[in-house]
Amino acid sequence: MSSLNQHRRSFVPELPKSIEDINQLCFVQESAPTFTDSEVKDLISNTADQPLLRVEQSEVAHPNPLKVGVVLSGGQAAGGHNVITGLYDAIKKISEDSQLIGFLNGPSGIVDCDTMLLTGDIVDRYRNSGGFDMIGSGRTKIETAEQFAAAKETATKLGLDGLVIIGGDDSNTNAALLAEYFVKHQVKTSVVGVPKTIDGDLKNEYIETSFGFDTATKTYSEIIGNIERDSLSAGKYYFFIKIMGRSASHVALECALKTHPNFTIISEEVAAKKKTLKQLSNEICDMICERAEKGKNYGVVVIPEGAIEFIPEFKVLISELNDLLSKEEHTDAIASINERTERVKYVAGVLSERSSECYQTLPNDIQLQLILDRDPHGNVQVSKIESERLFIELAKQELKRRKQKGSYSGKFSAQPFFCGYEGRSCLPSNFDAQYCYALGHAAALLIQSRATGYMSCVKNLTAPVSEWEIAGIPISTMMVMEKRKGKLKPVIRKALVELEGKPFAMFTRQRDEWKLSDDYVYPGPIQFFGPEEITNMITITLAEERHHLAQAVS
Ligand code: FBP
Predict the structure, then answer these.
(1) Ligand 1, atom 1: nearest CA belongs to which residue?
(2) Domains (ranges, CATH) in the chain?
(3) pLDDT tens digits for 140-151?
(4) pTM recorded for the entire structure
């Protein structure tokens, strides 16, 4: 273990005052029932319309031991281990005889009853550490009747009082459905969700942010700042940085606000303005040409991972390709063609005119990637497309054209870069370490209070930790029916970047300035020791959305 890791292990997360003495607390109803969407209600009638919960001092101490299961679901996010250590400490405070059981490798661990008893020794090794390796994670969805029945058998066999599902929107939807199933089948296990995802798209009026977003954006911003400084120092490269976030652009937006790159695509804006790939690439080239006139043949462009899926013409192209490649006549025909360029020609010939045009503007590698790399369901793997290379190729083509026309005389040398997995499993920032520790405590108290179908919530996050507040939010209030793979399903709607929201407004006020001036900001690495305004800095997104700008560094 590195010296820093050892130091971090002994860091004691501060707890909000409101939950310090967990043994003297209970959750009580905050309000009248919140309402569940009527179609969702038809599916979860036993757990719909539940009230919000808040903590209150309780006269009675809780001597009864709890037996709780915990599972990590989906992509890693810094702080996951601290939810578990927080949960462990909280149930042990409630009773020394309480037990915490980890389900291994994600929700499949529940279905297969693949477990590990989490002892004090094990938990201590992972305090304030990154990653999900204490018990592993996975992306299995509990969906079929057999899987639900197996989950019931596991919960009953282990005699669980509670099951904590740490995950994103899909996993929390799953938590709500499992809670309903358990109530319907008289299983005593309370199911509680915890909001996790670096993407930052699991938030709403109650959930201020998901854990992992703070650490990931700080990590990526350190990297972007370093690259900006290298770009400025050498003066010879354009860096095209793709940045993680499967769908929404919260991560890209936060990093842009922190580091001021020359150009940042915000996918939600692209969709709203119905921009084409060509328009987008032209905008980047306009910026490159203007900078070249000032003698600047370098710069930084940030591209959110999900960007191309938000380009309307690309969306249509992908859907047509999925359709086309699901038909044997076409897959056989493509397979029988040896020549790569002929394969591309064949596909361009059977697409609609508009999609064919879009397909033909793409660089050759991407054209082939689109027809060859497919997921197990046969769909095009859009998230695997190297959009940083795509935009470099498109810029090269356009700048060459402008050079021939005489409207550009600069030099263009580009470097692709991907900010991704390195932001998910790093040491959690103080914010995420403390937020997660408190989320674990809130989850324990929800189970102690026999609440089921709730999400653990810590709010007032722009205030000092001591003033954070704990709540229980019925997951059903966040759910709506949406079409997924052609079928109506209950889901927690992903929070996309709001174009009317404050963080985006802050970005649009400054972005023109950032294009030409080198107003780069170099945030440096996450700090664990030192002045509070650095160690406990919150994201600009959170500060802007919750109106407490003072604590954010812009
Ligand atoms: P979650 O939504 O499960 O938190 O995962 C988010 C994420 O990190 C995305 O940003 C990224 O697109 C995706 O996971 C990568 O998934 P995988 O780990 O399966 O490659």
Answers:
(1) 75
(2) 3-212+428-492 (3.40.50.450), 213-424+501-543 (3.40.50.460)
(3) 999 999 999 999
(4) 0.94
